[in-house]
Amino acid sequence: MTMERLIAGLLALAVLIAAIRLILWHRSAPGASALRLIALLLLQPLCATLLFLTLYPPPVAGGSASLRIATAGASRLAVRQGGGLVALPEAGTLQGAEAAPDLATALRRHPGARQVSLLGEGLPPRDIDAARGVQVSYDPPAPPTGLVSLTPPPAAAPGEAFTVGGQIAGLPGASIALIDPAGRVTDSGVPDKQGRFRLTGTARAAGNSLFTLRIMSGKRLAAQAAVPLTVRDVKPPRLLLLAGAPGPEVKYLRRWATDAGFHVTSRISVGGGVLLGDAPISIDTATLRRFDAVLIDDRSWAGLGGQRNALLAAVRDGLGLILRAGGPLDRTTRAQWRGLGFALSGNNVAAPLALPKPPAAAMARTRQGIASADMPDDMRLPADFIPDVSRLALSPAGDQAVTLLRDASGTPLAAWHAAGLGRVALFAGLDSYALALTGHGALYDDWWRALLRAVVRPAPGSASLPGISWAGERLILCGIGGDAQVERPDGAGAALQQVGACAAFWPATAGWHRLHDKGAATPFYVQPADALPAMRAARNRDATLMLRSTAPRDGGISLPTPGPAWPFALAWLIASALLWWFERSRLGRDQPTRSTM
Amino acid sequence: MSADALLRDWIAPSRRRRFADTLLLALPLLFAIAAISWRLAGLLTTGVLLLGGAALALVVARQRAARHDRVWLIRTLDAARPELEDSSALLFSPIPPASPLQALQRTRIAARLDQGTPQDLAPPWSRRPVIALLLAAMLIVAAALLWPRAGEGPPRLAPSEEGLPATPGLPRLIAQNLRIVPPAYTGLPARDSAKLDARAPLGSRLEWTLRFDPDARMPRLLVVDGQALPLRRDGDNWIAGRTLDRSFLYRVDPAAGGGRTPPLHRLDALPDNPPQVKALGPALTLVKPGQRSWSPSFAATDDYGVAATARLRVTLAIGEGENVTFSEREIAVSGSGPGRDRRFAPSLAFSSFGFSAGGDMVAQLIVRDNRSPSAQEVRGPSVILRWPSARAPESSGLEGMVNTTLPAYFRSQRQIIIDAEALLKRKRSLSADRYLARSGAIGADQQILRGRYSQFLGGEEEGEPQLPTADAEGHSEGDGHDHGPPQAKPAFGAPEDVLASFGHPHDDSPASSLDPETRAILKQAVDEMWGSERELKQGRPDLALPFANRALRFIKEVQQATRIFLSKVGPELPPIDPTRRMTGEREGLASRTLDVTPIASSDGPAAAAWRALEGKVTPDLDPLERWVRANADRLPDPLALTGAIDAARREPDCASCRTRLRGLLWTAMTRPTGQPMRRPPADAAGARYLRALQGAAP
Fold first, then answer.
1. What class, spelled out in words, does domain A153-233 have in CATH?
2. What is the ipTM, given to two decimal places?
3. Contact A458 B678 (CB under 8 A)
4. pTM of the model
5. Looking at chain B, which residue has its C-alpha nearest residue A459?
6. What is the DSSP string of B134-200?
7. Are B599 and A181 within 8 A, CB to CB?
8. Do domains B158-270 and B276-386 have the same CATH topology?
């Protein structure tokens, strides 16, 4: 306001000075026509007024109360019916539509719009906030068909199995395949009735790779999407292996953990105080703090005595604990393990275990990687006979515990439960070593890795990264430090302006980006702008549908918005030209004169 | 001469001529067809076609000859011989002339007929068609034999596809041919490949024919990971040859290192697979009644051919229980069917093998393929023929013994009771002597049965009960009964047979493993039998019956007892008491460390290059290539990887080459085991929450 008044004052002052000067000049100039003076005196304030109105055009009341917004996929037929159309960039160029960079701009241009009717797929996340201020009417199009949801796997450790989940819609009889970076099918399946699916792949060494999800409808490629996978090196866990007696199970566990590069300390009791394994250690709080996980069987659990409290205290401080049954449990152990949160309901006997059907040999090979030099390749494929693996009929799952592993019949095989900052897991399988001996080494590794992963002592992680982001769409990076930077695929860097612990980033190109923060680089993948169209459409559609149900946030007054300035500017230009010409002309005077403006 | 004989005489020459003429026409056609089919389809088809064609020609010739019949003869004679006055029909008519006028005319004509010979009527040789056909056939045969085959004659060069820009002054490969001559035993024809990449059977001869422009001075074939192969000049072309002893990559180097490096070519050696043998019948069959021989059948398949003869290994297992003798012999068998899928169904006569009841005959086919120089030998699955023993099926262990021995005893005891009852019923009709004799005979049966039970119990019940009198003999050496041969003193250190040194076993019977209760019942049964036997032998079967019935009851009791005794459930071991472990002598026992060495798993260079290829950096490919060479047998496709490495090295800026190399490196990495992803630690609020869940103070 003050600026407006200042301008107005300045203009008025200028007009006054000009008028005084005109009058003085008129007096000193004999023979000048009074009519000319009057005309000049009238034209000066007119010019000033017009200039002021050009700068501050008078607010217009209203305009149309409803606005039609064309979003992505707006049909040209629907667009033509009626006027007042604004096209967002996603809609492309539409004839007869006013182009607006986003919805907020369109609403600013049309201040009277109280209602917005949307055409097309719906509003992108950019416009959702702007749309909360108006009444949104939205007639949603048919739900998109294709891959409407994709959940890429989180960062994996080297060699870990990962799961890709997703949902497809409108493609009956579709089959889905996961293609590994070498172009081989590593898993395939069909979706369930709701169209959901889960496929499994395996990681290799640390690095970034792109798997491909391929959805075939009959022989036709219905959709294809890149599934980014980041594999990060992890610090090898420090594992304490406690066994009440030597046996094949502990032998193969020790072999597995050692080959995986863990720092393994094993203590196998053979009775009478004689211990085998590594250098003996005492089990107390200080020692247990050095370990990330403890794997203990029921016999050494029963023989722990007073050290049990130290172990449980260490678990509450973050240590992971895996309980393993070596056979039917005795009553005390069963009660104690129940106290840790496991139901242990059922018979205390060994029961048969339904092993999952191994994948076809060609698919199994794509999940295995090359053989090690010590083991022939055919030993890694399942043997003809079924290994003699069983489980305890006591079910580890309960209402408190989270089921971790199930056998092929769906019976829980392992579960975990939080205990303070740490976690306790219970494995009910017996003689799992037989898997390692009969070519089911991958399953053995999956089971024990899942158990260890569930409980192992947590380690400081990195920033939380968005699930799926597209080129050209704002994404939010959280948990970052002050000097975080994003490295683009072409190697150029972009500094992040941090607000709170988060920052926004607009990726311009698709590909692997790197978030450099606190000395660590966290890669994340940005999908191309045209990737996953169905998923994007479904997201926009759902978000817009949710808008429809919320009432407009109509508390504040709508600002008076200025009307168009160009008529005043034109009038000012004409008036000024007239004034200039009138001053320069000899009309009404008899001597040469100078311009007063 | 009858009319028929006359007719035969007159038409025979014409028929012969027509027959021979038709065959002469067919002959060139057959030759031509045979030559073409031999060239296109092989000897067998040619034979079949020749036979079929010859048969067809014979049929056609016969039909054409048969046209020279009576009607033809009459017409021909009437047309050619005016002196016959159109009356030759009278001569050849089988019906004698009806009127005298006809007979007169016939006689006249018959005299004139012999003025000409039947040979005059024979149709002329169709000279022109025969000559034309012969010429055409000769042309066709010559063409069929001389038409050049692929892989024979001078090679035809195809334009090269090296994709290199022409550099003035530097020789460049412009045309190429690769001739592949597979080993003779495969039976595959030689072929020419227009490309320098090929797949060929292992052991094929490879011959390159290359042309350069401008002409090269010392071109070579550079084999990756092998010796360079110099090219020899052959007119305008350059040639080289080599045997395909393994898959390899190579490139044509026209300018001895000058100019850009040409692309790699790949030659895949397809190994000869060993034959596959499949048994066509079930793995185990039983001998049918009346069967005298057995013919197991096998199918053997191979990619190039199975040898016509194979060996059949026949293993005989004859005997039962522990007394089984094995004999093995191999016989030569010959197969039938085409070389790639031969059937072997030898017939094995039982008599020639000495195969009899209770034996097993196991047959296994050992086949070879026709690979040279060294044939591959494969043993097929074994099929078994079992001739079940005529005896009752026997099971193992004590259960079997009891099952086979005791029921026989039961039947006997029951039989004795039935016999005794029958004797009682017939008492009136029999004389006293006969009655006594019959009763004595049943008593003798009872004695045998009692003796067998006594034997089962260790012979302690043998003989009559001893009188508790002083004349019972002492047990000493030389007391009349057998004590077995004198025992040799055991050698030092040998486990001493304490029982043998201090006595001899009396209870080395199967029943010594019975529990005392069962033994007692059996003894009671034997006592009752003894009573029954006594009464029977004295001719009192009515008095013997209660004893016999009691004996049967006791035996039944034992039968039930032994059923319990012979439970088939596995041993129920007592639970382990860990507190008793290691409580015995513990000298020299102490804790010790068990070393475990992690296995070495290395994909270092592959993983490093894979990571480096993600960025813009070109990794150092030399260590990677060395690693690929060293670990070729672990990699799924080392040649493709080597080729991709070479492509990436030649064009470091080629994005698709880098992508391809990165994809292939994915297949060349190990999958590390074990390592788990760690969850991020809980923040302050989370930690408080988790502790509160546990019930601890936050």
1. mainly beta
2. 0.78
3. yes
4. 0.66
5. B680
6. HHHHHHHHHHHHHSPPTTSSSPPPEE--------TTS-EEEEEEEEEE--GGGTPPPEEESSS-EEE
7. no
8. yes
